[in-house]
Amino acid sequence: MKFIYQDLLNFLAKKPSKDLLSEKLFQLGHEHEIDGDIFDMELTPNRGDCLSLNGIARDLNVFFGKTEAFKVYEGDIDQLNLNFKNLSPEACPKIHFLEIEIEGNVNAYKPYLENYFSSLNNNKTNFFTDVSNYISYELGQPTHCFEADSINKQLIFENRNCNESFKSLLGADINLTGNNCIFSVNNKIISLAGVMGGQSTACSANTKKALVECAFFKPESIIGKSVAYNLTSDAAHKFERGVDIQAQEIVLRRFIEIVKDHAVIKNIKIQSFEDDQVQKNSIPIDVKRINKILGTNIEENEYLTYLSKLYFGVENEIIVPSHRHDISTQNDLAEEIARITGYNNIESKPLKIKKNDRGIDKVDTLKNYLIKNGFSEVINFPFIKTEEEKSISIDNPLDSNRNHLRTSLKDSLLDNLLYNERRQKDSIKFFEVSDLYSKDDEIRQEKKLGIIMSGRRGQNYLDFSKKLDDAYLSELLNKDSESIVFKIEEISRAGLKSKKKDKIFYTEISVDQIPEKIFNDEESSFKPINFIKYQSVSEFPTSTRDFSFSITDFNKYEAVIDHLSKLNDKYLKDAYIFDFYENKKFNEIKVGVRFIFQSSSATLSEDDVHKSVNKLLKPIVDLEGVSVPGMQ
Amino acid sequence: MSNIDNIEPPLIKDEVGSLHPINQVKDFLLNMLADLGFQEVDGPEIESEEFNFDMLNIKKSHPARQMHDTFYVENKSHVLRTHTSPVQIRSMLKSHPPLAFTSAGKVYRKDDDATHLPMFHQVEGIYVDTDVTFANLKDLIHQILHNLFGKDVKIRFRPSYFPFTEPSAEVDILSENGKWLEILGCGIVNPIVLKNCNIDTEKYSGLAFGLGVERIAMLKYGVSDIREFYKSNLDFLGQFK
After folding, report:
1. Residue A348 distance to chain B (closest CA, Å)
2. Taking CB atoms and an 8 Å limit, are B135 and A347 in contact across chains?
3. Using the beta-carbon criterion (under 8 Å), do B222 and A533 form an inter-chain contact?
4. pLDDT at residue A168 is higher than 90
5. Residue A396 and residue B205: Cβ atoms within 8 Å?
6. CATH number, span A78-274
7. Hey, which of A106, A407, B160, B219 has its CA 20 to 30 A from A313?
8. Where in chain A are the domains?
């Protein structure tokens, strides 16, 4: 909800600055952003009563005083004899109708009305609808204007099971299904109640006589309809959060006053339909309880003053005002007192609970072991397309590709592996631990560990030319077990969109099947967290260059290794020694080094890489007794 | 001149992997809360509406229960839990106050855009004892945020609305650029929830709080796009060793 700063000031006795107003709105729990003179409010769903200037001003009364800024028509109004039947009073216990007829056309709006449209970028529709929209902004009560002459038979309100089409006043055909609150004439739907009116009975620029409907629809009878039919409706937003059941007559009198401001009124008639008397909601006065909830020492008179200023009645009990649907308990009242006092002004009081030791379990131990051996943990979404016999189906999936829950970690981990292969990774080791769900007679839950790997065993010169294989994985995982606990399979590359030839190995096991005492010798504590400053991952390709250094002056060997450990270049992403060979026959040491270059902002050109290579190699090749064969 | 036989081969560096950053942050939070006295409890991700909503005072008409907000499964017989609070409900039903539980794990909401994911992680805590007050809650939240962001962090409590707490608050911290950042939600446990768990509300009261793990991870690591956590990109994961 947006409002204009000056409009709100009209409702306040004191005129706070924007900063002070903002501070108090936050104190009261009304989050917002400010753009110039416009306050864009993000109100919590329990505060439907604040979706208007009048509502916000009511909440601010304790700080700035609220004025009765709006004039209402105070004259007599004739009785309307509308042919109306309410078949669902449980959904709409109270409804008023105003028939209002004017002379001539309205060509210009008064500044307050004009400003509402221009400053908030609202579109004008026609005079009566524009007044209706403005009233909703001012007082929070939606009204709907019918072209009066189009309601030529009995008007019926009901919550009925529908399977029919209805053309909204915006011209969209909406296929209503299931139970909907509707207005109908001659059994034809003319309005989706509380959400949007229909085209057939909508007012136009030529309307001289309007029938204004002003109702209290119960939130549960309206909720979800605007989303279900993809309708943007301010009225539905307000009815879903609850409007004031006592406000209808005053709202219609305000409607008349605004019309009177703009046109000569020929006729006004009003009629109300009420199911039964509105029950008073009251709560015992119990300031001790309030202090017990908050941990404060608020005096009773202070407590009662605060509540009075929030429009609560103070009699033998606290009487909840009709616009506050969110208040029914002592805890609710405690929150009211805390809001006025200011959450930040309530003093903290120490809470002492006995320290609890969070032990490390076998899954944590196993994770530590895998990480130590070069495996990285991944977390995947559980949604899949494939329907398996035991997979759980999602009734309302995000899309048809995500309409079941996975029963294995394998496909997710395979996707992770292929994704990284496409990003030029040649040694990939992943694991995931997750609860998986399946069904037979009932829904079953099982925590599983999946491990996948492919490519080089490592980037060091001992492992660079070796491939990850089932023997490596079995040795890693089954070394402490008397029998094979982790069963390893090779995943075929047939059908995979991949040009890689490296074999893929996979194992998956239920955590329950992992022996409790596994990897007992491994580190069994949580590693302290290191909150590194993350560097954005480049989306540009890497360029790899391999160089082989021939060292014949062994006094220079240490200098070469030292230099390689301190390489620095803006494009150098990684560098490692992938080959080391002592050629005793020729009295020569060979050191193979791989440089990987990548830019964060562009694909590197040959020239970029060449310059970086020269800069990195120069200090080494300048050494006497060190050369890079084939390099000038 | 050195002899070739005296040459030491280059040192081989450990090629270690990494725990997922979300689980690192989750563990950090759970360990910190254990130090503050909370015991970790676990529960299912597929829940009944009763435990995910009804027991937590989330009424049938609440927007969160609509099909556009919550994933329903198996002909609407269950939901993917929208928070870890049902774990606390299950635990409270099995124990007696005083109690202090944390629940952590994956939760699901029907959302998928640049800033929202259909699956994310929460860490929630609940403490029930005699005379637990909002002033106690503030003290606990200060301890948590001081552990996370340092003793000098500026903290703001704002009234908010959650059906399972009353009073409810959202808590912000002041960022380096002078803007308030929302960090967590908390409140005094609504007595309706305690009654649902057969706890005597004349004798006991409680406090509760919940943190979004991704939110904390993004702030602490400086990750600006939440989706990065779930691409399983080695260049990303490798930074969190």
Report:
1. 4
2. yes
3. yes
4. yes
5. no
6. 3.50.40.10
7. B160
8. 2-64, 78-274, 281-343, 362-513, 543-627
- Residue A137 sits at φ, ψ, to 5 deg, of -65, -40
Q: Measure the CA–CA gap between A502 and A487, rounded to whole angstroms.
A: 20
Please report where in the chains the tokens 């001081």 appear, as a residue: B146
What tens digit of pLDDT does each residue of A468-526 get? 999 999 999 988 777 888 999 999 999 898 889 999 999 999 999 998 877 766 667 78
> What's the gap in Å between the CA of A223 and the closest CA on chain B?
7
Report how far residue A443's alpha carbon sits from residue A440's, in angstroms, rounded to the nearest whole number.
7
For residue range A288-300, list pLDDT tens digits in order.
Answer: 999 999 999 999 9
Q: What is the pLDDT of residues A76-97, one digit of tens each?
A: 999 999 999 999 999 999 999 9
CB distance A344 to B170 below 8 Å: no
CATH fold for domain A362-513 = BirA Bifunctional Protein; domain 2 (3.30.930)
Closest CA to A327 of A283, A365, A262: A283
- The minimum CA-CA distance between B115 and chain A, rounded to whole Å, is 16
Residue A435 to residue B40, Cβ atoms within 8 A:
no
pTM of structure: 0.91
Residue of A nearest to B181 (CA): A31
Residue numbers in B near A534 (CB within 8 A): 221-223, 239
Q: Please name the amino acid found at residue B187.
A: G
Same fold, A281-343 and A362-513: no
Domain with residues A543-627, CATH architecture: 2-Layer Sandwich (3.30)
| Type of residue found at A398 | L
- Minimum CA–CA partner of B231 in chain A: A416
SS3 A140: coil
Q: What residues of A are in contact with residue B4 (Cβ under 8 Å)?
A: 554, 582, 584, 587, 589
| Domain A2-64, second-level architecture | 2-Layer Sandwich (3.30)
pLDDT bucket at A632, cuts 50 / 70 / 90: low
| Backbone torsions φ then ψ of A182, nearest 5 degrees | -135, 160
| Helical (H) or strand (E) element with A382 | none
| Model pLDDT, residue A464 | 93
Confirm whether the ipTM is greater than 0.90. yes
H or E element at residue A161:
strand A155-167
Q: Are A4 and A52 in contact (CB under 8 A)?
A: no
Cβ of A557 within 8 Å of Cβ of B40? The answer is no
- Counted residue by residue, chain A has a size of 632
Q: Which residue of B has its CA nearest to A333?
A: B167
What is the largest distance, in Å, between two alpha-carbon atoms of chain A? 118
Non-local (6+) Cβ contacts of A632 within 8 A are none
Amino acid type, B68: H
* Closest by Cβ to B220, choosing from A392, A462, A531: A531
Question: Closest by alpha carbon to B24, among A509, A510, A532, A410?
Answer: A532
Which domains does chain B show, CATH number per domain? 41-230 (3.30.930.10)
What are the pLDDT digits (tens) for A546-590? 999 999 999 999 999 999 989 999 999 999 999 999 998 889 999
Fold of A281-343: Phenylalanyl-tRNA Synthetase; Chain B, domain 1 (3.30.56)
